[in-house]
Amino acid sequence: MSEEIAHWDGKSADAIKAIYLDWRDHAELTGLLVALMAMPDRERGASWMMKHHLEQGDANLEPVDALAFHQAGVAQQHWEARLHYLQSLNYVHVPERSRTLVQAFLKQGIEAEQKFIRAWSYNGLYLLACQFPDLQGTVQYQLEEALESEDTGSVKARIRKGLKRGFPERG
Q1: DSSP per residue, 50-98
Q2: What are phi and psi of 116, to 5 degrees?
Q3: Hey, is 149 helix, strand or coil?
Q4: Counting Cβ atoms within 10 Å, is residue 32 exposed (0-12), middle (13-18) or buried (19+)?
Q5: Please, are residues 102 and 124 in contact by the beta-carbon 8 Å criterion?
Q6: How far, in Å, are 25, 69, 114, 117, 123 from residue 95 at the CA level?
Q7: CB-based contact 54:85 (threshold 8 Å)
Q8: % helix, strand, coil for the chain, step of 5
Q9: CA dihedral of 26, 32, 37, 41, whole degrees rounded to 10
Q10: 119-152 burial, b for 16+ CB within 10 Å, e for fewer?
Q11: How far apart are CA 23 and CA 17, in angstroms?
């Protein structure tokens, strides 16, 4: 799979999807994708495949895989790979041990030039606060402030979505 991703042109959705389809039933797919996400020349393809795998409901990240996934995810260099990681946060729990790392990545992301990185970083902060209730007050404030200061409609829409959903009741 590594060589197939290396030869992918970085553009063809059909080509990367075909690679995924060839490998989707491989028993070690999740671990392979996490490892490939840590390779700069493979991160775009591997992160897309991981996101797709998660969206299909086929990935089951064990705690050790989740730790490695977040370590690789926050280290993504290409903006598209970072976006894939951010979009994957909808499907992957952030372990306590990864919390600070992910939170720092998200804070950096809300300052990014790319509007999609900003939008999905706000979404990530919302998701993190859902998992860690002690962050809810701070994140609520950040989202409300960003809604007032953000100029880009797609970013504001993602922020509004989080605010509308609200946070789960504390137990």
Answers
A1: HHHHHHTT-----HHHHHHHHHHHHT--SHHHHHHHHHHTTTS---GGG
A2: -70, -35
A3: helix
A4: middle
A5: yes
A6: 26, 11, 27, 22, 17
A7: no
A8: 70, 0, 30
A9: -90
A10: bbbbbbbbbbbbeeeebbeebbebbeebeeebee
A11: 10
Amino acid residing at 91 = Y
Q: Please give the model's pTM, rounded to 2 decimal places.
A: 0.94
- Per-10-residue mean pLDDT, the chain, length 171: 93 95 92 94 96 88 88 96 97 95 98 96 98 96 96 95 89 59
Q: What are the structural domain ranges in the chain? A: 1-93, 96-171
Closest CA to 72 of 112, 108, 44: 44
Q: Which two tokens stand for residue 146?
A: 């960003």
